[in-house]
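Example (one chain per record):
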Amino acid sequence: MKLKIAHLKLAHSRAFILRAYRQETHEMLFDAHNYALRVWGGVPARGLYDNMKTAVDKIGRGKARVVNARFTAMASHYLFEPTFCNPAAGWEKGQVEKNVQDARRRVWQDAPAFASLVALNDWLEQRCLSLWHEVKHPEQKDRTIAEVWADEAPHLMPLPSPFDGFVEHTKRVSPTCLLAFERDRYSVPSPFANRPVSLRVYAERLVVVAEGEVIAEHARLVAQSHDRPGRTVYDWRHYLAIVQRKPGALRNGAPFAKLPLAFKRLQAILLTRPGGDREMAEILALVLHHDEQAVLCAVELALDSDGVSKQHVLNVLARLLEPDLPVPVDTPAHLQLVAEPVANVSRYDGLREVDHAS
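Predicted structure:
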């Protein structure tokens, strides 16, 4: 698998950070900045960049640049000044260029195999921090990078909240409640079928927004080759409104192929009964109004007994959700009832001015 590696480095201490991504896109660049600034513990006043397409839309004469709007938004968020090198002037960014060469020997030469990109990036962070304590500073040769960074860190600008580093696209949801992105398709709640929505693309996730609210979120599938078939990611919760109208879709519907195990066991029982489709659909719809884990717990408890049904699940769920009884209060001795009052309705007649016949 071919990966893109983000290299970021502080000019004074030479504290460097490496971060691996599958693509070189805007959202990856934003994520790399959020990560590096968090590790450094602050923000430098100025950043020196190559004329990468994820930051510069157009190169003009001399220092003139048309900077990408989202990159400008990130720089404004962190309050640092971006500066761009002249084209083909590698000496202007020599520190980072040398860091790429050094990383081949210090980091990648003995790197083990990793099961996932997350595991690789976790290892890269620990490896970089270890090298800070091992590598001597090129100018202050009697000190390590970590020692010089400890002096530099208090002079960095305070670190604000992470930049919301997404790239936004307007998409239209298909009639089957799917949204297409990079040859893959992701499910969206059924009320938004055939409607435009906003897709916010992050480095590791996709967020769908409509009417000012987040309506769906998925882990991002990143393409590893251009000839692979497209994949579809379903969230069965997005189709609950449909199965209320068409409960038969539960039997072979692709979105319901990966229901939680307790729901699958209950479905296998209910679908053998007349009306079991609708009964199962109504039980699944409980997650729209109650915590999903509470509903799953109720289903599991109902399955452990005989004669599981919708009413049985509802009764168990009601018991799980009912509030706890208040703690008993010890009544002080002087407030305890000694003589129980006697029910005497005739005493009421004495409060009236005139007696009336019953």
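Caption: The longest strand covers residues 213-219.
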